[in-house]
Backbone:
């Protein structure tokens, strides 16, 4: 069984757990757009039954992460830059709402956790630790959604934030982007600590939109020969 899937119970994983596993592989670029998802391989990796694997693939197809074609089976779905733009617009709106609510309603403990995570990410920038930055960044964004107890938005954002555009997301955590993100985080944290909901919402929207702009610029560079993948 895959070491990243130790949480599965001895009686075998559910379809939801297997879907979570596959989604995590896509998010980490272990499964890439166009790659076939072979049921036998997933069964071996997760210990799940064929029925549960098929259930998981159907769930992911409904989310738009997987394509299922007759006679060809399932594969990881890619996305155009127009689709990526739409994903980011939705994320900006949803995460902006959460940031505004967090600023006004989160506990002092959660706000301090937000500060601590932001500081830890800045240390990653200075120390050249992009993978750790990515992990902390995910925790930071999740904390904001948890802090507002808006689990509907959290579930939606989880689906929207999966890196379906492999060639671009593989290069997303470059040093210049990390510094920009850390600067954005400082603005959001300042608004949160001030209890200024509208400012926190605006800063979060800007942060997500800046991420999309970075991807657009990177996409142009890729297609004009200005960057090596």
Residues:
């Amino acid at each position: 069984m895959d070491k990243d899937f130790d949480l599965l119970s001895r009686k075998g994983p559910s379809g939801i757990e297997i879907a979570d596993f596959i989604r995590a592989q896509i998010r980490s670029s272990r499964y890439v757009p166009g790659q076939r998802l072979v049921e036998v391989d997933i069964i071996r990796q997760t210990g799940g039954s064929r029925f549960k694997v098929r259930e998981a693939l159907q769930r992911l197809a409904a989310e738009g992460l997987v394509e299922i074609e007759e006679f060809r089976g399932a594969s990881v779905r890619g996305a155009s830059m127009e689709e990526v733009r739409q994903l980011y617009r939705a994320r900006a709106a949803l995460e902006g709402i959460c940031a505004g609510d967090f600023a006004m309603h989160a506990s002092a403990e959660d706000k301090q956790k937000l500060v601590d995570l932001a500081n830890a990410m800045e240390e990653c920038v200075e120390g050249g630790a992009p993978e750790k930055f990515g992990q902390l960044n995910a925790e930071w964004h999740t904390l904001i959604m948890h802090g507002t107890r808006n689990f509907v938005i959290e579930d939606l954002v989880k689906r929207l934030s999966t890196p379906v555009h492999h060639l671009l997301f593989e290069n997303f955590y470059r040093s210049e982007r990390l510094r920009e993100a850390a600067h954005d985080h400082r603005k959001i944290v300042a608004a949160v600590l001030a209890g200024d909901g509208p400012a926190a919402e605006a800063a979060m929207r800007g942060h997500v939109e800046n991420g999309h702009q970075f991807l657009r610029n990177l996409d142009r560079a890729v297609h004009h020969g200005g960057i090596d993948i």
User: Anything to note?
Assistant: Residues 165-169, 225-229 have pLDDT under 50 and may be disordered. The first strand starts at residue 36 and ends at 37. The radius of gyration is 19 Å. The CA atoms of residues 41 and 47 lie 10 Å apart.
